[in-house]
Amino acid sequence: MARYTRIEVAEVMKETGMVPLFYHPDTVLGKQVLKACYDGGARLMEFTARGDFAFEIFAELNKYALAELPGMILGVGSITDAAAASLYMQLGANFIVTPVLREDIAVVCNRRKVLWSPGCGSLTEISRAEELGCEIVKLFPGDLYGPGFVKGIKGPCPWTSIMPTGGVSPEKDNLKGWFDAGVTCVGMGSKLISKQVLADQDFDGLTQTVKNTLDTIKEVRNN
Q: pTM here?
């Protein structure tokens, strides 16, 4: 069962401005990545459930977070149907992220007051997601749309909260472009937690990268 309501999760997303994305089949490595991000100041992690038996890995990571990382909010991404969403919510997922807009997922998440963030690519999809109770819409793939799309959406719909995923990197110019356009937060995967970091097991370096990225987000928001 989720420990955080959808409103609580949405507030942390808005406050921190970033959701790291990560998947690896090695549970021990996953815990090290999770702690490195936590030590760097991240308070959210999207586990992108793309491998065989991914639900078993997530269960272990969530137990670890609950026991060792106070305030760390774990959710699950790459969810494509309501059954998978229900399974992960039984394992304590605090939010569900999907690559597409699926109303069956909205129903099961809303029933449990769990935040769900669907991948949308048009104003019509965004509007429908909000009608279904979505707090923060995922713009995916972000690199195909860019900050200009966000700015265009925020004009007629200033109430819309958007989280681009894909095409987001820790560089200041990149982050400034997104936040100046009006995003609420950003999702960041391999640009933040790179294959090289994992291969070298450079967790101290990852902690510093996360800290620097969060500091940059604060800076661009305040300017």
A: 0.96
Condensed to tens digits (0 to 9), the pLDDT of residues 74-127 reads 999 999 999 999 999 999 999 999 999 999 999 999 999 999 999 999 999 999
CB under 8 Å to 173, separation ≥6 — which residues? Answer: none
CA distance 1 to 200: 35
Distance in angstroms (rounded) separating the CA atoms of residues 51 and 105: 20
Amino acid, res. 60: E
